[in-house]
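G.,

No rush on this.
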Amino acid sequence: MIGVDWLLSIAEGVGGYLGIFVVSVIGNLIPFMPIPYLVAVYLYSAYMPGSNPFLVGIVSGLGGGVGKLAVYYMSRGAAMLLSEEKRREMERLRQVIGNYGALAVFIFAATPSPDDVVIAALGLMGYDPLKFFVAVTAGKTLISILTAYTGRIVVEAVGEENFWLSLGVSIVLFIAVMVLMTLVNWSRIFEVLGERGWRGLYEEIRREGVIGFLFSRRKEARNR
């Protein structure tokens, strides 16, 4: 994993919001390699005098979208190397996802979850690049704005001198969100959406309840 100090040095070297943009592009450019660019966003908003968390989030989200667009095109180029059987599998996946590929990208981009798997699949199946870019940028912007405001709010609550306390609180919040996202049965959500649409999703949630439907994986595991 690339160190936070290195990212912060880039942000400081380039300067201001442009530095945040560059860091966010780099943080999303290499597929399947965790680069903690959101830590730089958090620290910049928390400790940089005069910084605007909303603008920091917008700039970071745009940079994240640009970085992920490069990952998308790398995956799209790799589709030429697929066998005919794999291409048929990608076509079936395209039919299952249908019009909800953008929603999948947005959800995974807007949460601390491994979005490169979804992005690679959409690239391989030749998903519309404009829809992809809009969705991934919107998702990255949302999580960046939330991260920036979290940094500002936590530091104002505990004080700038209590750096480790503010960092500890943020780590706890991150882990809680990450655990929650891991427990959600995303594959079933998108399977229902792709096959039956929003009405089908609503009917399943109404039948099983929100908790029962979202976390159905654990229930299924117990039944086996």
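When you get to it, here's the other one too:
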Amino acid sequence: MSMVGSNPEEDVMSTINITPFCDVLLVLLIIFMILTSLLKPPEVPEALNKLRVTNSPILVIIKHDPQKNKDEIQVGSEPVEEAQIYDRFKSYFDQFNQTQTDIIIKAAPTVHYGTVLRVMDAAKSAGFNKFGLANKVLGANNDTVQN
């Protein structure tokens, strides 16, 4: 503790001087800001499983139109007639250089079972051999088929 004056009636100064403390903190802050701007970002390591990464599978959505009493087939975001489904699958299979063999089929509960079998048969004839049957597509409502 330091004495402010020589007279005994003067009190002892018991508070810290904030100005030098703030100066030191500001200098440290400036030093750290300069150092972080000089650092280069770390290198990203090479992926060890890049051979296992594949294209995302083709999504086929089959829904039933009760007004027309007909099943509608949608490959990706494009509606396709059932007669042209094999040609569409074959063009996708050739487009992927015959490396993509996965396909996901999402069918509404009201779809005729035969339509799903014909779609699977057309996909298998085109060259797809790994099928996934989805009961819910991420982002779709629970009671509707994604459009």
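Helices lie at 18-38, 85-95, 113-126. Strands lie at 2-3, 12-13, 58-65, 70-75, 78-80, 102-107, 130-134.

Enjoy the weekend,
O.
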